[in-house]
Amino acid sequence: MTEQDTLTTEQTHTRAGKYLTFVLADEEYGLEILKVREIIQMMDITGVPRTPDYVKGVINLRGKVIPVVDQRLKFGMPEAERSDQTCIIVVNLGNVETGIIVDSVSEVLDIAEEDIDDTPAFGGSIDTDFILGIGKIGESVKILLDIERVLSGSEMGDMTSVLETNRAEGGERG
C-alpha cells in the first residue's frame, strides 16, 4: 500500500459517521453532526452594515451574538420565502459559532464509509473543495459538506471584524 493509498483510506474513514441532513431548494445536504451545536426556529435577525448579501445579520442566542448566513445565497441560489420549516442550524467553526439558514432539517443519518463516494470532477473552474463527498442512501444522494470550508475562516474573520467595528462605532446600543 502506497502513502497515497493510506491517505485516501484515512480520508474515507474520517468521512464516515453521523450527519445532520437538511434541504435547500429541493436538494439534500449533510453536515457532520459533531459540528452542530443546535437547531433553532427562525427568529428576528438584526442586519449588519457592510456585510456580504448572504450574511443576513446577527441573532442574540441566550446572550451571545451569533452571525447568521443564508445558505441558499451563499451557494448562489435564489432567496426563498420563509416557512414554518425554515430554521437556523448553529454550527461550531473552531471558536466561532455561526448560524446557517436552511429550508428544513431532515434527519440524522449514520453513513458508512463504503456509502460515501468522492466528489465528481466538474472541471478546473468549478470549486468543490467544500464538499466532503457524496453520500448514497438507498436511491438518493446527499451532498456532504465540510462546513468549515463552506464558511471559510477568512470570511468568518471578516464578519467578526465588521461586527467589532460596528460595536466600536456605536452600532450596538445597550
Average pLDDT across residues? 83
The CATH C-level class name: Mainly Beta
Number of DSSP strand runs: 11
Structural class: alpha+beta
Q: Proportion of β residues?
A: 35-45%
- Main sheet specs: 6 strands, mixed
Alpha plus pi helix count: 4
Distance between the termini: 61 Å
Per CATH, the superfamily is CheA-289, Domain 4
Which strand order spans the largest sheet, edge to edge or round the barrel?
Answer: 8-1-2-11-10-9
The CATH topology: OB fold (Dihydrolipoamide Acetyltransferase, E2P)
Summarize the structure.
The chain has 174 residues and is of the alpha+beta class. The chain has a single domain, classed as CheA-289, Domain 4 (OB fold (Dihydrolipoamide Acetyltransferase, E2P), Beta Barrel). Helices cover 21% and strands 41% of the residues.
Protein model, in words:
The protein is globular and about 45 Å long. β4 and β5 (64-70) form a beta hairpin. The longest helix is centred in the C-terminal third of the chain and has 16 residues, at 153-168. It is of the alpha+beta class and 174 residues long. The chain contains four helices and eleven strands, in the order αβββββαββββββαα. The protein has a six-stranded mixed beta sheet with strand order 8-1-2-11-10-9.
Topology:
Elements: H1 3-15, E1 17-24, E2 27-32, E3 36-41, E4 55-61, E5 64-70, H2 71-74, E6 87-93, E7 96-102, E8 104-111, E9 116-117, E10 131-137, E11 140-145, H3 147-150, H4 153-168
Parallel strand pairs: 2-11, 5-7
Antiparallel strand pairs: 1-2, 1-8, 3-6, 4-5, 6-7, 9-10, 10-11
